[in-house]
Amino acid sequence: MVNASKPAARLIKLSAVLFAVGLWFSLFASPVAAETTNGELPFSISGTVSDSGTPLGGVKLSVTGETMTAPASVLTSADGTWLVGVPEKNADYVINLDVSSLPAGSSIVDDPDTVLVESEKVNVRVGPGGRVALNFFLGEVERNTTSFFDQLVARLINGLNFGLMLALAAIGLSLIYGTTGISNFAHAEMVTFGAISSLILVGIGLPLWLALIGAVVLSALFGWGMDSVLWAPLRRRNTGLVQLMIVSIGLSLAVRYTYQLFIGGNTEQLPGADTPKLQLFGSVSLSWIDVASMILSISLIAVFAWWLLRTRIGKATRAISDNPSLAAASGINVDAVVRVVWIVGSALAGFSGILWAYFRPGIRWDMGGQILLLMFAAVTLGGLGTAWGALAGSIIVGLLVETSTLFIPSDLKYVGALVILIVILLFRPQGILGRKERIG
Amino acid sequence: MDFLGVLNSTIGFVLDPVTFAFSLAALGLALHFGFAGLLNMGMAAFMALGAYGYAIGILTFGLPWYLAALLGPLAAVIFAIILGVPTLRLRGDYLAIVTIAAAEIMRLLFLTTTFGPVTGSADGLSGHNSATFWAANPIAEGQYDFGPFRGTELDWWVRLVGFGILCVAVVVVWLLVNSPWGRVLKGIREDEDALRSLGKNVFAFKMQALIIGGILGSLGGLVLAMGQNVNPNQYVTSITFYIWTALLLGGAATVFGPLAGSIIFWTIQAFIGLLMPALASEGLLFGLSSIQAAQIKFILVGLALVLIVVFRPQGIFGNKKELTFVK
C-alpha cells in the first residue's frame, strides 16, 4: 500500500458520517408493538388505522364472526396497529370500527392499494393463509390531486433510493461472479444477515449507530467464514460452476430457514423505521432515513470505487475478473484476492440489508430473497461480472420498479424489471457494459 | 411419543399424489438437465401452469375435466417456447437466471389482484374438482385401507389417475432417451460443438427437450390440482429447489433416478417433518417449539442439496461417467 494514510482518512470520515447518522437515529429508538386481543388463537386479522398518514392510537375495533363465541374488541396502539386472533381460517368475520372513538374530524375513506374500506363496518374472509391484513385509512384523500409530473418525480427519487440500495448488494454479487464464476443465490441471505445482525445488536442494548457498524463488521466476518469453510475448499477441489451454483442454492435454503428458526415468521422493525415523512416540494416527501440512506449508499459506493480503481488489491480483483489464469501467472495470489472479494461483497450486502430493512420497511427471514432476482436482473442488465455494470443496472432497475407503478398495479411492480431482464438477454445478452466474449 | 404412528404416516407418503406430482416434475427436469444439460430453475412455473390451466379451464371456461387437463400442457408448450427462444443460445447460467425470473413472473401474475376474478389471487382456486373430476370417480364410496396406505374412494381415485399419468410418462421418457433423438440430446449435453459439426440443429433439439420436460412438469401440477385446491404459494421458487434436490438425489441422467429420488426425498422430508415436532413436544429438542422444529426440515433439505452436489454429484443411481456437471 503506497498511500496508507489516505484510506485511513477516508475511513475516519466514513465512520464520522455513520456516527452522526447513528446519533440521529438513536433519538427515535422506540420499540413497536401491535395491541393484541386473543393473541393465543392460531389465525389473525391485523392492520393499522391512520388519518392522512398519521397513525391513530386508541381507536376501538370489534371483531365478530360465526366461529367466535363472543365479539373481541381491541384498541389500536400508539402507532395505529392492532391484531385480533380468530379461531378458524376459511371463515368470514365482520370488523366494526367504533366511530365514536375516533378523534374529531376523521372520516373513513378507501385506499386503492389495500382492502377496500368503505364504511366503518367491513366483512373479511380469513383465507387458507390464516392471516388477513386490513387497514383503515381516514381523512382526506389526496391521490387524485397530485399531477402526473409530481408523482413521477416522487417515484424517481424513491426509485433512485431503491436502486442505490440494490447497487450495494448487486456490486458484491457481480464481483463474486467476476472473480469466481459463482452465480451466488445465497447472496440474498447475506443481505438478510446484515439486517438481522443489526436487529440482534440493537436488541442487546447497543446504540443504533454502533449496532449498524457492528452489523456490517459481522457481515464481513460472515463472508470470510463462508469463503473459508465452504467456497475455498470447493475451489481447491476444482468444483464445476454448475455445481457451485447448486451448492449456493442449497446454502441459501439452509441459511434462510435457520433465520426463520431463530427470529420466527414475524416482521420486526429497526428503531426509527416509523419516522414521519417530510414534505419537500410538490408531492415529494422523504423521511430523514431516506436521505441518510441515499447519502450513505453514494458515499459507500464512492469508497468502493476508490478501492477497486486505486488500491493494489482492487486492481488485482479486476485483473482476476478479466483473466484468472493470466492474473495467477503474473504473481497475483488469486485465493487471497477472492477471500477479500467475499469479505467486501458480504459487507456491502450486509449494509444494503440494513437499508432494505428501512426501505421495505421491516426485517423478515426472507427479506433478501425478495430482491434476489432484482439483483440478478441488475447484474445481468449491466453485464455479468462488471462492478460498474451492476451499479448502472441497479439504478435502472430501481427507477423502473418504482416508476412502473404509475402504469401497472403495484403488486406487479417487480414483473416489469424481470421482463426487462429477459428482453435484455434477447437483444444484448452481454449487458450494457459487458463484453461479448462473456456469453460463451 | 408415537414413533410407530410417525413411521406409518411416513410410509403412507410413498403413494401420496404429491409424491407422484413431484416425480413427474423431477422426470421433466431429468430430461432438461440430466439429458439435455439445460439448467431449468423454473419448474415451479410449469407446474403452476398445469394446475391453473386445469382449474381455470373448469371454473372459467366450463370445460369437462379431461379437456381442461390438456390446457396446462398446452400453456407449458407456449411458455417453453417463449423461454427458450431468447436463452437456449446462451450459456447455461443465463438460462438458470432467466427461468427463475420467468417462474417468479408467472407466480406474481397468478398472485396479483388484477386477475383476481380468474386466478383467485392470493386465495387461489378451489371447487374445481367436486362436480367434475371427483364426480367421475368409478370407485364405490367407502374407506379403503391397505396397511399404511389409507384413504377414501376419492383419495384412491386421485392416486390411481396420478399413478397412471406417471407410468405413461416414465415409459415415454424411457423410449425417448433410448431413441436416436435421446442420443443426440446426450451428445449436446457432452459437447455441443461436436454435434453441430455433425450437422444437428442443436437449438431445435434443446427446444424440443425444454418443451417435453415442461409438459411433464405441467402434468405434475395437474396431479397436484386434482387432489387439492390451487394456491399460488404452492409454486414458489423453493419448490423448484426441492425438485432439484430430489432429482440430484436419485441421479440426474437416469429415468428411474428421479422417481426414486422423489420418493426418498418426500418420505424423508415427511418423516423429519413429523418426527421433529413430535420430538419437540416431548421436550427433546433443547426447548424448540414444534413450529420451529418443523422448519428444521427445510434446513436439512438445503444441507442435503449441498452435500449431494459436492460428494455424490451423480446421485444414488447415477453413473459417474454420465456426470452432467462437466462444464
Automatic annotation (TrEMBL), chain A:
Main location: membrane
A single Gene Ontology CC term: plasma membrane
Topological relation to the membrane, as annotated: Multi-pass membrane protein
Keywords per UniProt: Amino-acid transport, Cell inner membrane, Cell membrane, Membrane, Transmembrane, Transmembrane helix, Transport
Cellular localization per UniProt: Cell membrane
InterPro entries tied to this protein: ABC_transp_permease, BCAA_transport_permease
Matches recorded under Pfam families: BPD_transp_2
Residue spans crossing the bilayer: 156-178, 190-221, 241-259, 280-309, 340-359, 371-400, 412-428
Ribonucleoprotein keyword on record: no
Alphabetical list of PANTHER family matching this protein: BRANCHED-CHAIN AMINO ACID TRANSPORT SYSTEM PERMEASE PROTEIN LIVH, HIGH-AFFINITY BRANCHED-CHAIN AMINO ACID TRANSPORT SYSTEM PERMEASE PROTEIN LIVH
Annotated family: Belongs to the binding-protein-dependent transport system permease family. LivHM subfamily.
Annotated protein name in UniProt: Unannotated protein
Native source species: freshwater metagenome
From TrEMBL, chain B:
Keyword Cell membrane: yes
GO cellular component terms, semicolon-separated: plasma membrane
Subcellular location: Cell membrane
Keyword Cell membrane set for record: yes
Entry-linked Pfam families: BPD_transp_2 (PF02653)
Transmembrane segments: 6-31, 38-59, 65-85, 94-115, 156-177, 209-227, 239-256, 263-280, 292-311
Record's bilayer topology term: Multi-pass membrane protein
Keywords: Cell membrane, Membrane, Transmembrane, Transmembrane helix
Name of the protein this chain belongs to: Unannotated protein
